[in-house]
Amino acid sequence: MALHNTKIDLPKDAREKLIAILNSRLADASDLKSQTKQAHWNVKGMSFIALHELFDSIATAVEAHVDLIAERITTLGGTAMGTVRLAAQNSSLSEYPHEITDGASHVDALSTALADFGKVIRKGIDEAAELGDQDTADIFTEISREIDKQLWFVEAHIQD
């Protein structure tokens, strides 16, 4: 992978590994945003407006994460691989169920996607720290906190 010139004091081999990790999480974040919009567009039932608005706010929050990850990639001298086609090819998230409409099913499916994304983001925190990049670890930590909060908002709809 060709890197763009930068005077950031991280070794080239570490930056290459970090960029690969970040691009993987970029694919996941882009996929998560589209899955959230799928839920937003298609939810039906008694809790429609609450879930419709919640899912839209989550998609907006995830979009900010997409941008943060992509900008870190380019900051490190890499190329953000952020098209929808690349996200579809490279996401580690499970496919979102297309046939569901009721709120409870969307809450279940979206909470699974959020939890799975949170898990790989937390793994990224450790990987970035091991490569000596506390800034990327901090970005992943920020994203992890926000995803956990969004997961709480979604799961609260099915908890007693």
What characteristics describe this protein?
mainly alpha, single chain, 5 helices, Ferritin, 160 residues, elongated
Give a brief description.
With 160 residues, the chain is mainly α. It has helices at 12-42, 48-75, 84-90, 103-130, 134-155.
What does this 3D model show about the protein?
The chain is an all-alpha fold. The chain contains 5 helices and no strands. The protein has helices at residues 12-42, 48-75, 84-90, 103-130, 134-155. Helices cover 72% and strands 0% of the residues. The chain has a single domain (13-155), classed as Ferritin (Up-down Bundle). The model has no long low-confidence stretch (mean pLDDT 97). It starts with 11 loop residues before the first helix and ends in a 5-residue tail after the last helix.
CATH topology category name: Ferritin
Give me the secondary-structure category: mainly alpha
Q: Termini, distance in Å?
A: 50 Å
- CATH homologous superfamily, by name? Ferritin, core subunit, four-helix bundle
Report the radius of gyration as a whole number of Å: 17 Å
Beta-strand fraction estimate: under 5%
The residue-averaged pLDDT reads 97
The shape is elongated
